[in-house]
Write a structure and sequence with these properties.
With 254 residues, this protein is an alpha/beta fold. It has 10 helices and 8 strands. Strands 1-2-3-4-5-6-7-8 form an 8-stranded parallel barrel, surrounded by 4 helices. Strand 3, helix 4 (75-94) and strand 4 (99-103) form a beta-alpha-beta unit. It is globular and about 50 Å long.
């Protein structure tokens, strides 16, 4: 199982962790619209920053998501959404990434599920029409209350590289069913995980031991039942990230 860490701190701090623990890098900078507005300059600068590991470690990209909606009924919003998601995809290509994560982006009670889902299926089939098989595309749950929405989306989008990124922290805060039910319901549709912990009231992106999710048992389950999937530790505090890696190492999971 490939393990990544999400870059939520300065590049030099993250590079030291990658080298020490031999993990992959999930790049989040290019999810920002401010960076995408001048992406060529930032991309070259970033390549220079990560030159010590470039081509030597697995890379994943967190795609753009701010104010975007793949299920919108507004054609202009759909155009902007497609433009930004394509920019994220081109960044993934430039960095030689193996995967890119996009938010599903559905906000409960803003659309009927049927309308939004139909629009989203149309969007993704159109978006993927010119994409090759070199980059896996993972759709991440955010505020969804259950797994059925994403399950139907993945089942109705015709592309073998289109799968689920299960964010367990988001499930713990926003869903009315358990992480275990999401695991069982989505099964091998899940190819990537965002791993962080919380106590169910706030999406705090805390250490794997700072919350009410038993993450060690979860990763053991993933190792046993979803061997072709990968995980990314999406932990905000760098010291908590290092502590989490040490815990995984101590449990023979790193």
């Amino acid at each position: 199982m490939d393990i990544y860490i999400s870059q939520l701190d300065e590049t030099q701090k993250i590079l030291k962790i990658i080298k020490k623990y031999n993990v992959g890098l999930e790049v989040v900078q290019f999810a920002s619209p401010y960076i995408l507005d001048d992406k060529d300059m930032y991309l070259q600068t970033y390549k220079d920053e990560i030159k010590d590991i470039y081509g030597k470690t697995n890379i994943s990209i967190h795609g753009p998501y701010a104010d975007l909606s793949v299920g919108s009924r507004d054609r202009d919003i759909v155009k902007v959404t497609k433009k930004r998601l394509n920019e994220g995809y081109s960044i993934a290509k430039e960095l030689g990434a193996k995967k890119i994560v996009y938010h599903n982006g559905y906000t409960p009670n803003t659309y009927t599920k049927e309308e939004w889902l139909n629009n989203a299926i149309t969007f993704w089939n159109d978006f993927l029409a010119d994409k090759d098989d070199n980059i896996d595309i993972h759709i991440e749950n955010t505020m969804e209350e259950d797994y059925l929405f994403i399950k139907e989306l993945v089942d109705n989008v015709n592309h073998k590289n289109f799968s689920v990124c299960l964010d367990i922290g988001h499930v713990n805060v926003f869903s009315n069913i358990s992480v275990n039910e999401w695991l069982e319901g989505l099964g091998d549709r899940i190819k990537h995980f965002h791993i962080h912990n919380n106590y169910g009231s706030k999406d705090s992106h805390s250490s794997i031991e700072s919350g009410n999710i038993n993450i060690i048992e979860l990763i053991k389950y993933i190792n046993k039942n979803l061997k072709n999937s990968s995980i990314s530790l999406e932990i905000v505090d760098t010291n908590e990230l290092i502590n989490s890696l040490e815990i995984l190492k101590k449990n023979g999971l790193l």
